[in-house]
Write a structure and sequence with these properties.
By secondary structure, this protein is of the alpha/beta class. 33% of the residues lie in helices and 21% in strands. The strands form 2 sheets. It has a 5-stranded mixed sheet. Strands 1-2 form a two-stranded parallel ribbon.
Length: 188
């Protein structure tokens, strides 16, 4: 059979998911901060306006060089093009369903809402600080957690001084909200 009519193995997982991004539970809104939305949008525009056209140019050039079966530039370029297209579809879908929430409207409040930076104490005399962000923008290394994470879900709606129960893999933890803050208007 001619190779032109067979599906490449790399293309088998060509759905619109991104394995590095957490899945959105069904029926859950995709809350995101204005800064997070801007970052995703900038990535999408960069892929569309810069990276994809460069790869298309390389693939086009490589295709003119004859035998494509052993042409590394062509094979790698086609694979990279599929990756870019998959990411473009993913970002487009996520941005379409995004609901931008500006956490700065809660400045000065003592209650935990989306976008809050929360300092909390654990029963074993530990203190931690987290910022509750959107699924597509949270970065655990920077102390940011998704609003659908168990800790965030437990803290949402709590006030300074409240104690909440959080289900963890090690069991139930009792957490006390020590401080709540929000970015200033126009901040990140």
């Amino acid at each position: 059979m001619n190779k032109a009519f067979t599906k490449e193995s790399d293309d088998a997982d060509d759905d619109d998911t991104d394995s590095s991004a957490p899945a959105m539970p069904a029926g859950v809104k995709n809350y995101i901060t204005p800064a997070g939305y801007a970052r995703l949008r900038a990535e999408l525009l960069s892929l569309l306006d810069e990276e994809r056209p460069k790869v298309v140019e390389v693939v086009s050039w490589a295709a003119k060089n004859g035998d494509r079966s052993e042409n590394g530039d062509y094979l790698y370029g086609k694979k990279r093009l599929r990756e870019i297209d998959r990411r473009i579809r993913f970002l487009t879908k996520r941005l379409d369903i995004a609901e931008v929430v500006d956490p700065s409207v809660h400045h000065g409040a003592d209650q935990v809402f989306f976008g809050a930076t929360v300092r909390y104490g654990l029963a074993r005399d530990e203190e931690r600080t987290i910022t509750i962000k959107g699924v597509d923008e949270s970065d655990s290394a920077a102390g940011e957690i998704s609003w659908i994470a168990p800790m965030a879900r437990a803290l949402l709606g709590a006030r300074v001084g409240d104690e909440v129960r959080v289900q963890t893999p090690a069991g139930v933890d009792l957490v006390e909200v020590l401080a709540v803050s929000y970015p200033s208007p126009g901040g990140t």
